[in-house]
Design goal:
The chain contains 19 helices and 18 strands. It is an alpha/beta fold and 507 residues long. The C terminus is likely disordered. The structure holds NADP nicotinamide-adenine-dinucleotide phosphate.
Length: 507
């Protein structure tokens, strides 16, 4: 999707889009001034033969303000521009229902003789209760295809829209909004003929960029048979699990996709998502902050180790929507530490008492380590220490204590708050520091430890190990770990804002 404000920018964005797709929506209304629109159409006309020859399809849109676009002109002016767009080689014209309903049959037929018509309905505020009514309006305009783009406030909304795609051939369904980032990708599985992705500027919340759509989510390969996996969290846009898990599916040539599901903190968010799991075709999902402990009460059954830990980071959806929980953070932390520290008999300090801290405490205690817990809520530290036969320790005592290893299991220092550290330099009295945070790879805590000559281990090691274990639970096959590692390393080298989805940064 190209939404530029000048002809030069539009031409540049079209060229960039062509590297990833042959179908481009050109938002003429974003060009603002009439002279930029005309210049862009002249540029397109000059390219007409070349585009036709290479199978490029341009969809021209000149949406009026009343329908959520930027075009300030009259309907007459809109129709004139769309006619010119068709003459310039645009094979499809997106015409909003508000304008289509004001055109005469003859005018619509004349426009339809020049290019195919995609009649569109937009609702930026909510998902219409009666989607059939919107569809009826669109079909009465007698275009070649219909599009419904509506705000999905919940997964239940998104599921309704996606299921609706199945009721109509030649339809495009676009769920909009922050929870809808995943649903935008899954629309293709639901039968939507297209998914929109901006090459540059986002034109609606929850949009996923074109390169992420193609490279991470392999959107062109998604069909009705694609198995769906994902990660639930709040926030979730920072997660690099999609890059890593999708690389695993690609390496094994599996028809599966892994998407980020923004699930708001609290039972309402979880209930909404879990209610839509079957309808969205989800076969399994990872669980991250803040749901690792809360998810337990919604499970039908749980692996005994996960139940003992009291935190679940992996869920398998079985027949009839039954949910089964596992914990792979346990394996992840052992894989990250066991080659570097002789765990049996060691003394390890864990910061935090949440999901990751619980998995770490159980893993280390089972391996024979003496576990110490320091958390901002002392009662939580004491409860976890009791559960693993360890001791709670107050922060004020840390300067005077020595540990074989210190493990950070809090999110302090995680992207985007990379300047924060859970401990000061003089509290780092140990041989090794392990930060479970993987983004950034070198957290402030690890940098401080390095400066003091302390060995450090990044959360990347744990992240790969726990992710590979999840992948194996879901697929029953051996995980292609080196492909998953490569994808993660590549993602970590990219600028921090290029994780593919913008959902929670905009909310
Ligand atoms: P969680 O269940 O929400 O627990 C977070 C813990 O950190 C809680 O004890 C919380 O205290 C504490 N905490 C939060 N903010 C704090 C602050 N500003 N100061 C002091 N303590 C604070 O989260 P989680 O799932 O355990 O995740 C914790 C971290 O581990 C995250 O950074 C996550 O990315 C990382 N992790 C990494 C991997 C990996 O594979 N590398 C796997 C799992 C987790 P309260 O209870 O008082 O809120």
């Amino acid at each position: 999707m190209v939404a530029a404000s000048t002809r030069t920018e539009a031409a540049r964005e079209v060229a960039a889009s062509l590297r990833a797709t042959r179908t481009i929506e050109l938002r003429l209304d974003w060009l603002g001034e009439r002279k930029e629109i005309r210049a862009t159409l002249r540029w397109l006309a000059a390219k007409k033969a070349a585009f036709r020859k290479s199978g490029v399809t341009i969809i021209a849109t000149c949406r009026r303000r009343k329908a959520g676009g930027k075009f300030a002109g009259t309907i007459r002016e809109q129709i004139a521009i769309l006619r010119e767009a068709a003459d310039a080689g645009c094979r499809w014209l997106d015409l909003e229902i508000e304008s289509a309903e004001r055109f005469s049959r003859a005018e619509l037929a004349a426009l339809g003789a020049k290019a195919r018509l995609l009649i569109s309905y937009h609702n930026f505020r909510k998902m219409p209760q009666r989607l059939e009514r919107a569809k009826g309006r669109l079909e009465r305009a007698r275009g070649d295809a219909i599009k419904i783009a509506a705000h999905a406030a919940t997964y239940s909304d998104a599921r309704r829209l996606l299921n609706f795609a199945r009721t109509s051939r030649r339809s495009v369904m676009v769920p909009m909004g922050n929870v809808a980032a995943a649903a935008r990708i899954l629309a293709l599985r639901g039968g939507s003929a297209a998914a929109y992705a901006p090459v540059n500027a986002a034109t609606a919340p929850g949009q996923i960029g074109l390169s992420a759509m193609k490279e991470i989510y392999r959107a062109g390969k998604i069909d009705r048979h694609t198995s769906v996996y994902g990660v639930i969290g709040d926030p979730v846009a920072h997660s690099l699990s999609p890059q890593m898990q999708n690389a695993g599916f690609a390496a094994r040539r599996m028809n599966a996709v892994y998407v980020p599901f923004l699930v708001r903190r609290g039972s309402r968010g979880l209930r909404d998502f879990l209610g839509a799991v079957e309808g969205l075709g989800v076969k399994g999902f990872s669980v991250t902050i803040p749901h690792k402990e809360a998810i337990l009460e919604y499970l039908d059954d749980c692996d005994p180790l996960a139940a003992e830990i009291g935190a679940v980071n992996t869920v398998v959806v079985r027949g009839g929507g039954k949910l089964y929980g596992y914990n792979t953070d346990y394996v992840g932390v052992l894989r990250a530490l066991e080659r570097r520290v002789q765990l049996a008999g060691s003394c390890v300090l864990i910061l935090g008492a949440g999901g990751a801290a619980r998995a770490t405490a159980f893993a280390l205690a089972h391996a024979g380590a003496n576990v110490r817990i320091c958390a901002r809520r002392p009662e939580r530290a004491r409860a976890l220490a009791r559960a693993v036969g360890g001791e709670a320790i107050e922060r004020s005592r840390l300067r005077a204590e020595y540990f074989d290893a210190i493990v950070n299991a809090t999110p302090v220092g995680m992207h985007p708050n990379t300047k924060a550290s859970p401990l000061e330099a003089n509290e780092l009295n140990c041989r090794l520091v392990f930060d479970s945070i993987y983004r950034p790879r070198r957290t402030k805590l690890l940098q401080t430890a390095e400066r003091r000559g302390i060995e450090t281990v990044s959360g990347v090691e744990m992240f790969i190990a726990q992710g590979a274990a999840q992948w194996e639970i879901w697929t029953g096959e051996r995980a292609p770990e080196s492909a998953m590692r490569q994808a993660l390393e590549k993602a970590l080298r990219r600028p921090e804002n290029d994780s593919g989805s913008e959902d929670d940064r905009r909310s």
